[in-house]
Structure formats: structure tokens, C-alpha cells
Amino acid sequence: MNRISYKTIRNSATAELKVKGSKFIVHARHVETPGQAEKVVEDISKQYHDATHNCYAYRTGYPADLITRQSDDGEPSGTAGRPILTVISGRRLFNVVVVVTRYFGGTRLGTGGLVRAYTDSANLALQEAKIIVKYLSQRLQFNFPYVLTGQVDKLVNKYNAQIQHVDYSVSVDETILIRKDHADAFIEELTHISGGKIKVNTL
Fold first, then answer.
1. What SS3 class is residue 16?
2. Helices (H) and strands (E) in the chain — how many of each?
3. 125: closest CA among 27, 30, 11, 10?
């Protein structure tokens, strides 16, 4: 993937795996921030409060503000959180949290067995999830006279930009969210229709 887009999951996904009596319940969710990821972990841990372990990993931000976190939640160090994170990273996914809940079945799996179980669990959930490509966005702010409203609206629609704020006063002050790789072309066309009179600020 390049620096204008990244892969993530569109929908939530769940899966179950049984290994030598232990039951693994997996939840994969799309999140945008570490705070959202932590909330997912908190909610699932509360839902399965009686479980032996609620292990997790997440990977948020792209590309410069990448944040990762993992937790073994009482499993031997490196046998749960790290394998889950390795699966997420190996699939080159961002803004994803995976929580694996384990109910101990009475048979110890050993270090290698735990790594395999948590790896397989994470893979199962992500196989069920819908993988999508999301594009990085750029926020633009500009001001223009009312007479250009129709032309500006057509341009915004042409580039499938999202209008985030509009203020109507003496002139129109507008803020949009546009695909980062479309920003330069949009600014060039906006400058052209205004005869170079519209100044665009990147936010």
C-alpha cells in the first residue's frame, strides 16, 4: 500500500475456536483511535468477565501516527497479544482491534500451543471481516463570493468531497474533507474558476 490509502475492516466480525477443551471467542472491530480500541476491549472484557483471559492487540493510525498495543492478560508473556498483533500487521491492516477471549478447558497448551491458538483465532475473525481500502483525507478551507456557489458545489460533487462546515455571511466560508490525492487537482480547478482569487488553506 502507498501513503494515500490503507487497508482496514469495514464490519465487525466474530469467530470461535476450540483447542483441547479451551474455547476461544474472537472479536475484530474497526476503530479510528486508541481510545476507541480501549473501549472495545473494556466492553468485551465486561461482557466476558467470567473468562479466564481477554487478550487483545490493536493497530491504529496511518502512516506517521501509528500506535500499537497488545496484552497477554495473564497468559505467558508473548503467547497471546504478540501473535494477535502479528496477524493484524501481517495482513497490513490499520485501525483494527482484535480481542480473543479464552475459557480454559483444563488442558494446558504450552507456549507453542498458545501461540498457535491465538494466531489461528485472530486469523479466523479477520477472514470473516470485510477488508476495504480507505483513503487518507485532507481538510481544506476556502472563502468565495456567492456568485461562484453553483460552480463550487459542482466541483465539490465532482471530487466526492464532504462539506464539513459552511458559513454564509458577506461571502461563503467553506470547509471540506477530500481525498488527499485529489486535493491538488481540486485546488487547481478552484483557483481556475475564480480567476486565482480564492485562497485555499489546508487544515
1. strand
2. 5, 11
3. 27
pLDDT digit string (tens) for 24-74?
999 999 998 999 999 999 999 999 999 999 999 999 987 668 999 999 999
Strand pairing report for 67-71 and 172-179: unpaired
The per-residue pLDDT of the chain, averaged, comes to 93
Q: Does residue 56 sit in helix, strand or coil?
A: strand
Q: What angle do CA 59, 14, 104 make, to 5 degrees?
A: 95
Nearest Cα residue to 135 out of 17, 1, 26, 40: 1
Q: Are 95 and 34 in contact (CB under 8 A)?
A: no
For cell 482491534, name the residue. Answer: 97
Q: Do 94 and 5 meet the contact criterion of CB atoms below 8 Å apart? A: no
Residue 63 DSSP class: S
Q: Give residue 1's pLDDT band: very low, low, confident or very high (50, 70, 90).
A: very low
Q: Are residues 149 and 121 in the same domain?
A: no
What are the helix (H) ranges across 48-109? 81-90
Which amino acid does the sequence have at 74? G
Range of 81's domain?
5-134
- The answer to whether residues 127 and 190 belong to one domain is no
Closest-CA residue to 41 (of 51, 91, 93): 51
pTM (predicted TM-score): 0.79
